[in-house]
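Researcher: Let's do a round of design. I'm pasting the C-alpha cells now; please hold your answer until I've finished.
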C-alpha cells in the first residue's frame, strides 16, 4: 500500500472518536443548562498540545488547492500512462498520479514476461472509485481501445497491417491485430480456394482491413485483397507491354472443357481448346497438365475487358505446310475417325491434316449407307486419296476404291435369269434390298415376292439379315442397279389355278381377314381370294367371322391381275334355285305321262260309255292340275 493510502488511514482513525461523540451528542438532545463561567473560559483552544495553531478557513482552502494541484485530472474510460510501483503474485500496482494507486490482474500482462517496477504501461480508467472505494484500471481494455482506434484509422487510410493467426473458427480464421481479435473469412485468405485452414494457424501475415462495425467493434481483414492489389499492378504492367504475336511464358492454373487458363505472372490468359493442337482433341487434359509451364503466343487482347487470348499450336508450323511428299492423289493413307457427319466421316491422317470420306465412297453398293452407323470415333481406316488441295487444305478420300469395281464385270458374274442367294439389307414399303456380294445388290419389288399372296408391307414376308433366293430380272449398269425377283424361282402357278378354280366352281375356304368392305378368304394351295361384303350374306342371316370355314363360289378369276373374287351368298342362292327347278321338272314329267294316257284311251274307245266318260273326266282333271302347277313354278 502507498504512503498516501497509509496517511489517509491514520487521519481517518484519529477523526473516528470525534465523529462518534458528535453522533452521540446529536442523537441525545439535552435540556438547556445555564452557563457557568470557569477559569478556563478564556483559554485559546486553537493552540494544540504541541503549541501549533490551526489554519484559518482561507489558509485551509489555499492549502487544499495546493494539495489538489499535485494530482492529475482525468475522466473515466480515458487512456493514461501509468508507472508500475509494485508487483505481487497476482496483481500489478499502477500509479497514474491519482490520490490512490490502482491494481490490475497480472494475467493482463502475459505478453510482457519481463515486467518490472518502474516500467510504464498504458491503462484504461474503468472507474475512479468502485464500490469498495478503489481505483479500477484495466490494461486489457486499454489495449483493445487503442487497437480499435488504430484499426479504424488504417481502415480509413487503407494502410497494410501485420497480424498473427491465432485460431480457426467457423468459416475462417481469427487474427490478432494490435492485440485485438479480427475475423479473416476463408474466401479472403488467398486468390485460390483454400480448404485447409489449419496450415495458417500461428502464421504472421499482412492484411488489409476491409470492414469495421463501430457498434459492436468488430473488424474483418483480408489477405486476398493484398494479393489482388499486387496482381492488379502486375496486370497493368503486363497489359501495357502486350503485343499480338508476343511469346510469353505461363503456368497452367486451371483446365476446363473449353480450354485452359494460363497465369502469365499476375495476369490470366485463356487458351481455347481449338488453339492447343493442330489435331482434334476432346479435352485439353490430353495435351496439358496442371501447374505445367508452357510458352504461348498472344493472339488477341482487350485493354478494357482485360482479356487475353492465347495460342499454343501457333508456335509450330501448320501440318499442311509440311505435308509429306508421299501423300498425293492415288496414294494409300491411314487415318483415325475424328468426326462423323450425315454426309461422311473425317479421317485424321496426321495431327492437323484431315480428309473426308463421303458416304458415296464407302462402298460400291448402291444401297444407302448411314455414316453414323458405319463409322465409330477413334477407329482407324485405310483409304485412297481421291483429291488433294494444299492451298485450300482439303482432301477427299475413298474406301471403296481400295478394291476393284465389281460392276465392271457385272454381266459375266450376274447374267439375267441367273439364280443367286443374297442377304436382306434393307426393307422399304415398296420392296426389299438384297446384297449378293460386297458392292453388288438390287431390289425385289413387293409384287415379286410371291405369286399367290399380296403383302401390305415386305416385312410381312422377310426380315433384315435373312437369306433369300433371287433371280436376276434386269441390269442397269449406268445406275448400278439390279432388278431382282423372288417368286420367279418357281413357275407361275396361275396357269394351273385357272383350271382348278373356274368361274361358278364352289370351294371350301377360311376367312382370314375381314373389314367393312369385305373379307379375305384362303383357298387351297395357299391361294387368297376376296369376298365383297354383299357376297358374305348367309342363308340364316348370321354374320361370317374370321376363322369361319364356309363354301364359296368363284365369281371372277383375273389371271393377269392375279385376282379372284368369291361369294358365299351365291352358293346357297344356287342351291335354292336348283331345288325349285327340280320340283318343276318333276311336275312336268307327271303331266307328260297324263297326256300320253289320255291319248291312248281316246284312241281305243270308239264310243263313249257312261263309265268311260267318267274315267276320261278324271284324267282331264289331273291334267289341269299338272298344268296349273307348272305355271306357278314358272312364276
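Researcher: That's everything. Go ahead.
Model: Designed sequence:
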Amino acid at each position: 500500500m502507498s504512503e498516501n493510502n497509509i496517511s489517509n488511514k491514520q487521519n481517518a482513525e484519529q477523526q473516528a472518536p470525534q465523529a462518534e461523540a458528535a453522533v452521540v451528542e446529536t442523537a441525545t438532545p439535552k435540556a438547556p443548562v445555564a452557563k457557568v463561567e470557569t477559569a478556563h473560559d478564556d483559554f485559546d483552544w486553537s493552540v494544540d498540545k504541541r503549541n501549533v495553531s490551526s489554519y484559518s478557513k482561507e489558509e485551509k482552502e489555499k492549502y487544499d488547492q495546493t494539495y489538489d494541484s499535485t494530482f492529475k485530472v482525468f475522466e473515466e474510460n480515458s487512456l493514461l500512462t501509468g508507472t508500475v510501483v509494485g508487483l505481487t503474485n497476482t496483481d500489478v500496482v499502477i500509479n497514474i498520479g491519482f490520490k490512490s494507486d490502482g491494481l490490475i490482474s497480472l494475467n493482463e500482462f502475459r505478453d510482457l514476461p519481463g515486467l518490472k517496477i518502474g516500467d510504464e504501461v498504458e491503462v484504461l480508467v474503468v472507474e475512479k472509485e468502485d464500490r469498495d472505494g478503489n481505483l479500477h484500471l484495466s490494461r486489457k481494455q486499454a489495449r483493445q481501445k487503442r487497437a480499435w482506434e488504430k484499426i479504424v484509422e488504417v481502415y480509413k487510410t487503407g494502410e497494410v497491417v501485420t497480424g498473427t493467426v491465432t485460431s480457426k473458427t467457423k468459416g475462417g480464421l481469427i487474427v490478432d491485430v494490435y492485440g485485438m481479435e479480427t475475423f479473416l473469412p476463408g474466401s479472403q485468405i488467398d486468390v485460390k480456394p483454400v480448404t485447409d485452414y489449419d496450415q495458417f494457424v500461428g502464421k504472421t501475415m499482412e492484411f488489409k482491413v476491409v470492414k469495421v462495425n463501430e457498434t459492436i467493434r468488430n473488424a474483418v481483414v483480408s489477405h486476398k485483397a493484398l494479393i489482388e492489389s499486387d496482381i492488379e499492378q502486375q496486370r497493368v504492367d503486363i497489359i501495357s507491354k502486350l503485343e499480338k504475336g508476343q511469346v510469353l511464358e505461363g503456368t497452367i492454373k486451371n483446365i476446363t472443357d473449353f480450354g485452359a487458363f494460363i497465369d502469365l505472372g499476375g495476369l490470366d490468359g485463356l487458351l481455347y481448346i481449338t488453339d492447343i493442337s493442330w489435331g482434334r482433341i476432346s479435352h485439353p487434359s490430353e495435351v496439358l497438365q496442371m501447374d505445367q509451364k508452357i510458352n504461348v503466343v498472344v493472339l488477341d487482347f482487350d485493354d478494357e475487358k482485360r482479356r487475353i487470348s492465347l495460342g499454343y499450336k501457333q508456335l509450330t508450323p501448320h501440318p499442311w505446310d509440311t505435308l509429306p511428299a508421299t501423300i498425293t492423289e492415288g496414294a494409300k493413307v491411314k487415318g483415325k475417325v475424328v468426326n462423323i457427319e450425315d454426309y461422311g466421316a473425317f479421317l485424321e491422317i496426321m495431327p492437323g491434316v484431315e480428309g473426308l470420306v463421303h458416304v458415296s465412297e464407302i462402298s460400291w453398293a448402291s444401297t444407302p449407307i448411314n455414316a453414323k452407323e458405319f463409322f465409330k470415333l477413334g477407329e482407324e481406316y485405310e483409304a485412297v486419296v481421291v483429291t488433294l488441295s494444299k492451298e485450300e487444305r482439303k482432301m477427299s478420300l475413298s474406301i471403296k476404291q481400295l478394291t476393284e469395281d465389281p460392276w465392271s464385270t457385272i454381266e459375266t458374274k450376274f447374267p439375267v435369269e441367273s439364280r443367286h442367294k443374297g442377304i436382306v439389307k434393307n426393307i422399304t414399303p415398296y420392296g426389299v434390298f438384297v446384297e449378293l456380294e460386297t458392292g453388288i445388290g438390287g431390289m425385289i419389288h413387293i409384287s415379286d415376292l410371291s405369286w399367290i399372296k399380296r403383302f401390305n408391307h415386305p416385312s410381312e414376308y422377310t426380315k433384315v439379315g435373312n437369306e433369300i433366293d433371287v433371280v436376276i430380272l434386269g441390269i442397269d449398269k449406268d445406275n448400278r442397279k439390279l432388278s431382282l425377283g423372288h417368286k420367279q424361282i418357281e413357275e407361275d402357278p396361275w396357269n394351273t389355278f385357272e383350271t382348278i378354280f373356274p368361274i361358278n366352281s364352289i370351294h371350301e375356304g377360311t376367312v382370314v381377314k375381314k373389314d367393312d368392305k369385305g373379307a379375305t378368304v384362303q383357298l387351297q394351295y395357299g391361294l387368297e381370294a376376296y369376298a365383297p361384303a354383299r357376297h358374305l350374306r348367309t342363308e340364316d342371316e348370321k354374320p361370317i367371322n374370321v376363322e369361319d370355314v364356309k363354301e364359296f363360289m368363284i365369281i371372277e378369276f383375273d389371271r393377269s391381275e392375279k385376282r379372284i373374287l368369291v361369294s358365299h351368298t351365291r352358293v346357297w342362292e344356287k342351291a335354292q334355285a336348283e331345288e325349285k327347278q327340280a320340283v318343276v321338272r318333276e311336275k312336268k314329267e307327271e303331266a307328260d305321262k297324263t297326256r300320253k294316257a289320255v291319248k291312248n284311251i281316246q284312241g281305243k274307245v270308239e264310243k263313249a260309255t257312261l263309265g268311260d266318260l267318267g274315267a276320261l273326266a278324271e284324267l282331264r282333271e289331273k291334267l289341269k292340275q299338272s298344268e296349273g302347277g307348272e305355271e306357278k313354278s314358272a312364276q
